[in-house]
Amino acid sequence: MSKSVQILVSIFAILVSTAFAGVTIYSPTGGTVQGPVNFNASGSTSCKKGVGSMGVYTAPGVLAYVSNGSSLNTSLGLNPGTYNTVVVAWDNCGGAATAGVTVNVSNQTGVQVSWPLPNATVSSPVNFVATASTSCSKGVNSMGVYSAPYQLAYSGPGSSMNANVSLAPGTYNAVVQEWDNCGGSSTTPVTIVVGNAFNNVQADNGWDMAGQGPPDFIDCNPCGKQITFSMQQGIKNPSLSGSATQFNIGGTGPYWDVLFNNHLIGDGSTQGMLDQNHSLIPSVHNLSYDVYFFGSNLPASQALEFDLNQFFDGMGFVWGHECRIAGGNEWDVWDPVAAQWIPTGVPCYPNNNAWNHLTLEVERTSGNQLLYKSITLNGVTNTLNIYHNPASYPGWYGITVNYQMDGNNVQTPYSIYLDKLSFTYE
User: Fold this and answer.
1) Residue 238: phi, psi to the nearest 5?
2) pLDDT digits (tens, 9 = 90+) for 304-363
3) What CA–CA distance (Å, rounded) separates 358 from 375?
4) Which residues pair with 416 in a beta bridge?
5) Helix boundaries (H) for 166-256
6) 223 and 131, same structural domain?
7) Fewer beta carbons below 10 Å: N end or C end of the chain?
8) What is d(CA 14, CA 51) in angstroms, rounded to the nearest whole number?
9) Of the candidates 219, 220, 248, 221, the residue with the CA atom closest to the CA atom of residue 232
10) Taking the chain, what is the end-to-end CA distance rounded to the nearest angstrom?
11) Distance CA 349, CA 243 (A)
């Protein structure tokens, strides 16, 4: 259905008000760790002047580390014991945000890998962050990364490492190893998938949600009785992967919507891919959104929306795709500059009470235009070749995916299950 320019604003307002406001701690993740302890975190704020600095408190009033900017990555030598640590981000408007993590620092020897997480999908070069300790009185001599048996991909001196290792796409049963000065060594394995893809995104952490209602479609959470919404992950039935996610909408207000959003790359990344040197995102030109969706009451949906978004250098590339169901069984695409939906003439008749397979292919051209390439629904491909210009979005930096559900004229409640949601980029 047609939406005003304010719905585009509301698509991104959730990122400012929720996804981009706070502190995200990537390591440590809690539990028992070995010292020194690696602290890797990022901060975000709705303050237009940005985050000024970040710090780590190891106890109330004990500021153990502080650095300028919206991220920190440091290793702190902590004695054995339990620490209720707090990471703080101070913005340039006088505000602050915090996040806490409790760690138990052990005096056991071995290798502690903080990043990457086991079974994570990462891009090359892969950032390996680890520390090591030993019972050898002479200490740890060096550390290294084996990408495969007998294939030493990196080595460096000392008892800690923070190294970027270039690896070709594929699955790696990597091993991080330390060698001490007494002739001993220890290892910790970590399996990772290297590639330009995020798989099973519906099962990932970091999803945000907000309701939107007429006439202004401003984000709210909670919103009152006009709209109710929720999501539940780890659904086994119905499911294709064994870990589908159920998305729900209801309420009393006609034509209310709910937006679900996950920020994959860049500022506030839920995947740990901050792209701090701003080299990855500007290099991305081709993107794909592949998902299976299931609904037992699809006629109740006014529309289902699937979006891919890219922001850098003050430009906003918003590839919005809307399958109008109660709204007329046709695909619309979003024009970011005109801030309106454009009918494509391509029909959209998803199957009720069955799994539907959707693939969206888009491109950012060499001249920085949005190109809608194709929509494939249940094996039928429709080539679009529709071009639009990007909108102006100064200060935004990242790649995100959206999923949205629109309510009909009586806000009939319905649920949609997403599964095997993958996002690829190159």
Assistant:
1) -80, 145
2) 999 999 999 999 999 999 999 999 999 999 999 999 999 999 999 999 999 999 999 999
3) 7
4) 247
5) none
6) no
7) C
8) 18
9) 248
10) 32
11) 25
Same domain, 208 and 246: yes
Please say which residue of 166, 194, 222 terminates a domain.
Answer: 194
Contacts of 200 by beta carbon, 8 Å cutoff, 6+ apart:
241, 243, 420, 421, 422
Boundaries of domain holding 133: 124-194
Closest CA to 244 of 117, 328, 356, 331: 356
202 SS3 class: helix
Q: How many residues make up the chain in this entry?
A: 426
Residue 350 makes CB contacts below 8 A (sequence gap 6+) with 293, 295, 298, 304, 323, 325, 356, 377, 378
pLDDT per position as a tens digit, 10-66: 333 333 333 336 888 888 887 777 667 889 888 888 888 888 999 999 999 899 999
Find tokens 């798989």 and name the residue.
199
- Secondary structure (DSSP) of 8-58: HHHHHHHIIIIITSEEEEEE--SEEEESSEEEEEEEE-S-TT-EEEEEEEE
Instruction: Report d(CA 419, CA 243) in Å as an integer.
Output: 7
Query: Do 155 and 77 belong to one domain?
Result: no
E strand intervals along 35-136: 37-44, 51-59, 62-68, 71-76, 81-91, 96-106, 110-115, 120-122, 126-133
Distance CA 177, CA 110 (A): 9
Q: How many CB atoms lie within 10 A of CB 135?
A: 11
SS3 423: strand
pTM attached to this predicted model: 0.62
Question: Do 279 and 385 fall into the same domain?
Answer: yes
Taking alpha carbons only, the member of 346, 348, 376, 371 closest to residue 360 is 376
C-alpha triplet 22, 8, 226: angle, nearest 5°:
80
Helix (H, G, I), strand (E, B) or coil at 352: coil
Task: Count up the domains in the chain and report the number.
Answer: 3
Per-residue pLDDT of 151-181, as tens digits, reads 999 999 999 999 888 777 778 999 999 999 9
